[in-house]
């Protein structure tokens, strides 16, 4: 088995993720050693490398590409920071004041603020080095930096008022660190005021730039972990006059990537790598939990040295989608002498072109939320399986430079609440394995959803595809042309606009087939100014990898309250008919038919299915009902006409009721329900006024489409439902019926 490599020999990303015929996709590619590379387009039908399944099904597509492309190795520069061009400063002395709250004071050399030239070759920086404030001076463009130690400790997780006094013509530097009065009690005793004076023994250049949170070298360097508020820069001229030359209110323009100066004529502050905002400042009282109602209490920015919002790579290849190319899931396969990568993308239908009747809604915001999820499980059995199956070789446990997921934490242990797609997303690759599943393939998200596209190809069912971003941008209009909309295995993350569009589609006579669980769960925000980003605030309840701090439940991007859709008044049941109820290990069992499944209005679902039990097989955990399970709950929005036709039984001891389902260990959060407890609900129904729902109630369900070459009960149930929904649409169309939506557009 080859040892893992931390630097993939060739890798890339694409923007945007989808395009229609006539539109362009831009591929940003890094090839080590500037090696040239070849490229070809493939259609991705199945991305599961398990030899016991259908196998990797990648169909070459003949498109006009060059025989060879010049390669370039492109660097990654993580670190959130903020910088301003000061222009010409007339001063012999500068005084910088700010308040800071370090969150990883023990780390070496983190630049809190830098007064510098355009590339940080000259200047003075205030930094934290292993718990101590230090001053780093650069007095000649080619000279080495000198570190002057202050002896003043940087106190972890406490707000400190900092004054840095720089006498440029003598090189004398003074540092004062004082306690900051807090808006809430319990912060601890006041910190003693500490002073330090050091001498650079050289004339210091007049700075042209100020950078907060890092050095600015055209990119961040030596990033700081912690919060900053209230930055102000004063210039003192030789005649003794003191002028405020830069100041910013950091709660202004919360969603923007530039912060206007507090006063006219002062420079704008430019944000890099999307620092976290809408966070508590030292003045936070706890009396207002919405930053919009008390902006002065949220006038801080949180910088992280490992934040990455945009690799900023140059375009290596542009692809224009040709007329007539079928809508579907595709990939650009790139290869140099040392390795290969496949970058997925989506071709959406032409605006005025023909449409299929079936639409696959790719859960790309969920893929992005989980992008580069470092689970700490790569070594051992998983690595051995990857090698044995020739699966995708790169794992975020090893390849760490492209940022982590919203299920990970920053180095200072703050939860990652922002995720970008302008970076390689290792977990969104054909053949990527998540778990060493002893009974299946161990796939999640993008490759797991290819179990559906492979089935559609095998059954000869024409379909179009759009992404979550397409749905968010276009709303109901993106869904309206289709008779049936199919989800993937885990459509978890949605904006308000997406949820409204899905509900309106169904209530307007559309048919939704929800093939997963734990879907329609988290509310996210996408800013129009940075559509490649998403934001998640893990507020209040729910299954969470980390919890947002009190007072930080509102998004910086749109000001909306974050957290679960259930806590925002639109439970998952209102969208997909079922909602999250049970979580366990990545293992599955089958379903048992319910007495209701024999009712005439739903019995058609089981045409050709023999026996009471079905689905006890599969490429995901070995069974159709597993890992995360959903249930019908009428008072949470499940339609009254939806019938539970199957329930799972016999789950192992790892399966537990999720927190939002209970008030105490003896009191449930909702009324008693049919078939409650540790089980999944499969449900189906057709509304009297048109439209319908199918809900599998399980994340592992799609993995069970495969058995005997798609000749099995799960495959039969899905095909029965899809074709019944299509016939129902035909009948409505023949009657000229169209339901009205109660969602305002």
UniProtKB/TrEMBL annotation:
Domain called N,N-dimethylformamidase beta subunit-like C-terminal: residue spans: 278-711
Stored InterPro entries: DMFA2_C (IPR046540)
Protein name according to UniProt: N,N-dimethylformamidase large subunit
């Amino acid at each position: 088995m080859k040892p893992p490599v931390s630097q993939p020999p060739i890798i890339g990303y694409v923007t945007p993720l989808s395009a229609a015929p006539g539109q362009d996709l831009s591929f940003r590619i890094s090839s080590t050693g500037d090696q040239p590379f070849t490229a070809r387009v493939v259609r991705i039908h199945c991305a599961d490398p398990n030899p016991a399944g259908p196998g990797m099904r990648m169909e070459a597509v003949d498109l006009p590409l060059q025989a060879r492309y010049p390669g370039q190795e492109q660097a990654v520069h993580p670190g959130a920071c903020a910088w301003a061009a000061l222009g010409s400063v007339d001063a012999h002395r500068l005084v910088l004041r700010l308040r800071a709250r370090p969150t990883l004071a023990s780390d070496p050399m983190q630049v809190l603020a830098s007064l510098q030239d355009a590339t940080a070759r000259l200047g003075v920086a205030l930094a934290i080095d292993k718990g101590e404030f230090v001053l780093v001076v650069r007095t000649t463009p080619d000279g080495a930096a000198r570190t002057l130690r202050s002896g003043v400790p940087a106190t972890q997780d406490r707000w400190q008022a900092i004054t840095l006094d720089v006498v440029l013509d003598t090189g004398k530097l003074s540092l004062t660190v004082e306690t900051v009065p807090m808006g809430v009690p319990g912060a601890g005793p006041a910190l003693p005021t500490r002073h330090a004076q050091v001498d650079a023994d050289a004339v210091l250049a007049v700075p042209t730039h100020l950078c907060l949170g890092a050095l600015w070298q055209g990119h961040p360097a030596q990033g700081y972990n912690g919060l900053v508020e209230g930055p102000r820069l004063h210039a003192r001229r030789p005649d003794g006059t003191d002028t405020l030359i830069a100041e910013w209110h950091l709660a202004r323009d919360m969603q923007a990537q530039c912060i206007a100066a507090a006063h006219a004529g002062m420079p704008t502050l430019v944000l890099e790598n999307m620092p976290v905002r809408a966070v508590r400042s030292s003045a936070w009282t706890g009396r207002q939990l919405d930053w919009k109602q008390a902006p002065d209490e949220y006038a801080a920015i949180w910088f992280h040295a490992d934040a990455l919002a945009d690799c900023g790579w140059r375009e290596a290849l542009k692809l224009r989608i040709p007329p007539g190319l079928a809508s579907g899931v595709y990939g650009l396969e790139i290869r140099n002498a040392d390795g290969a990568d496949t970058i997925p993308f989506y071709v959406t239908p032409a605006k005025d072109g023909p449409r299929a009747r079936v639409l696959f809604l790719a859960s790309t915001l969920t893929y992005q939320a989980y992008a580069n999820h470092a689970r700490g499980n790569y070594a051992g059995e998983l690595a051995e399986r990857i090698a044995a199956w020739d699966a995708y070789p790169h794992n975020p446990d090893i390849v760490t430079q492209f940022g982590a997921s919203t299920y990970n934490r920053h180095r200072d242990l703050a939860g990652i609440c922002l995720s970008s797609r302008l970076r390689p997303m290792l977990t969104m690759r054909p053949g990527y394995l998540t778990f060493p599943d002893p009974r299946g393939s161990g796939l999640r998200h993008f490759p797991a959803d290819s179990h559906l596209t492979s089935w559609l190809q095998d059954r000869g069912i024409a379909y179009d595809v759009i992404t979550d971003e397409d749905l968010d941008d276009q709303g109901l209009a993106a869904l309206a042309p289709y008779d049936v909309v199919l989800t993937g295995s885990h459509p978890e993350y949605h904006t308000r606009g997406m949820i409204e569009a899905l509900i309106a589609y169904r209530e307007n006579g559309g048919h939704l087939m929800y093939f997963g669980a734990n879907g329609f769960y988290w509310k996210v925000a996408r800013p129009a100014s940075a559509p490649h980003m998403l934001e998640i605030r893990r507020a209040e309840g729910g299954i969470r990898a980390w919890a947002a701090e009190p007072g930080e439940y509102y998004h910086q991007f749109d000001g909306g309250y974050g957290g679960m859709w259930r806590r925002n008044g639109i439970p998952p049941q209102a969208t997909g008919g079922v909602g999250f109820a049970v979580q366990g290990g990545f293992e599955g069992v089958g379903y048992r038919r319910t007495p209701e499944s024999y009712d005439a209005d739903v019995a058609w679902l089981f045409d050709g299915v023999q026996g009471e039990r079905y689905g006890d097989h599969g490429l995901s955990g070995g069974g159709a009902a597993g890992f995360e399970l959903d249930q019908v709950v009428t008072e949470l929005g499940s339609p009254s006409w939806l019938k539970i036709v199957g329930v799972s039984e016999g789950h192992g001891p790892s399966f537990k009721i999720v927190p939002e389902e209970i008030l105490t260990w003896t009191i449930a959060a909702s009324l008693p329900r049919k078939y409650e407890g540790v089980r999944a609900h499969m449900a189906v129904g057709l509304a009297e006024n048109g439209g319908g729902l199918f809900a599998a109630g399980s994340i592992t369900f799609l993995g069970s489409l495969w058995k005997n070459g798609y000749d099995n009960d799960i495959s039969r149930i899905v095909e029965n439902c899809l074709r019944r929904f299509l016939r129902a649409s035909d009948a409505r169309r023949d009657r000229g019926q169209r339901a009205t939506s109660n969602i305002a557009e």
